[in-house]
Design a protein that fits this description.
This protein is of the alpha+beta class and about 100 residues long. Helices cover about 70% and strands about 15% of the residues. It has 2 helices and 2 strands; from the N terminus they run E-E-H-H. Helix 1 crosses helix 2. The mean pLDDT is about 90.
Length: about 100
């Protein structure tokens, strides 16, 4: 199956980029570009003058660092949820076992 592509334009910093991507990914690409552009704009307002390339690199690193933190938080949440589910399963099994013993 051949994927149809579309050529689209995004603005990041002071740069306009033309990118070819699968049609179904165009919206996501524009969303990602808006996030990166906002980070670049925020950085350019808060740090000493830097080139657009430097701003994009720092912005991308900030986004990846935030994503990595969220990933760790999600892993921790899943671990705690699994631990709680396991505990609940053990309690349920113990209750059923005791109930079966009482019935005998």
């Amino acid at each position: 199956m051949k994927t149809n592509h579309q050529i689209t334009t995004v603005n990041i910093g002071k740069r306009q980029l033309t990118i070819k991507c699968p049609i179904e990914e165009v919206t996501g690409l524009h969303d990602a570009a808006r996030i990166l552009d906002k980070k670049v704009t925020d950085l350019s307002n808060n740090i000493q003058p830097a080139s657009t390339e430097e701003l994009v690199i720092v912005a991308a690193l900030n986004i990846i660092q935030e994503l990595a933190q969220q990933h760790l938080q999600l892993e921790d949440y899943i671990h705690n949820l699994n631990r709680r589910l396991h505990s609940m399963q053990n309690k349920t099994e113990n209750t059923v076992t005791k109930q079966n013993e009482l019935e005998l």
